[in-house]
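Protocol step 4 of 5: obtain the predicted structure for the target chain.
Materials: sequence only (see below). No template structures provided, no constraints applied. The aim of this step is simply to have a reference model before the mutagenesis design in step 5. Sequence pasted as it appears in the construct record:
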Amino acid sequence: MDTAALFASVLGLPPGEGAARFADAGVPVFPCKAAEKRPLTQHGFHDATSDIEQVRGWWARWPDANIGMPTGSRSGLEVVDIDVHGRVRGFGPFELARREGLVDRWQVLVKTASGGMHAYYPADPQRPQPSWQAARCGIDFRGEGGYVIVPPSRVMFEGNRSSYEMIGAGRPGAVPLDAAALRQFLDPRPDPPPSTANSAQRDVDADRIAGWLGTRMEGERNRALYWAACRLAENGVPDDNARAVLGPAAVRVGLPEAEILTTIRSAYRTVVGTTPPFRTRGTAPSMKGRVIS
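Step 4 output (structure tokens):
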């Protein structure tokens, strides 16, 4: 299947004709409510089919219905969904992942109704990958158990109907995405500590997190610092204390002070909603050995 040619062929078509093009290419589709993303059939994306008569029957009944497509093994396509919601914009993290070679071999790029983007990749039939979200980064992965709205659908956004449109085709030789590697890049997590009868699993050991940060390799240090700062912010650790416990570990792995301050500020702004007034000189209060619950 030439995915780029298929997406280009539906440009400007009525929804029913677009749905028929997908079905004729062997891509299962299902109808969604006009101007929305909600399925119209009882079982949603589980009802998707490439049976052309069924597809034509659906759109004869609902001529303005949008077109839904299941992702993963059923369609042979997986999607990285770059979201734009308020202050959360997924384009920055997506570009960082592209520079790392994690998302750069797409087949098709599609503009979404909200101003975000869908990047399509061929699915590996031997390696089904579940859908997931990295909400803070504004990135979702749509694989097994997911679906997307495809062109030429139109969705209501901020009072206007906005179209899904193909905006670019990838280089020849698109390859399946490693969704697990992408998730680890966007939202790296330290290994959980051994559980003991005397410790609550909700506790966060700040020194353990700092120790994990100190083991990060080049290319993952900044995002690891961001992850660690978010965890401390979520557990109510004051920003000066976060700087005191994470700063030395970040310095040891080679991050400059200005970058450390910027990254921790960004993490606290994301979690708390305000920018912490960090000092640029002096020493923040120590929290050595403290366990936060």
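Step 4 remarks: Confidence is low (pLDDT under 50) at residues 192-204, 277-293. Residues 71 and 146 are 6 Å apart (CA to CA).
Proceed to step 5.
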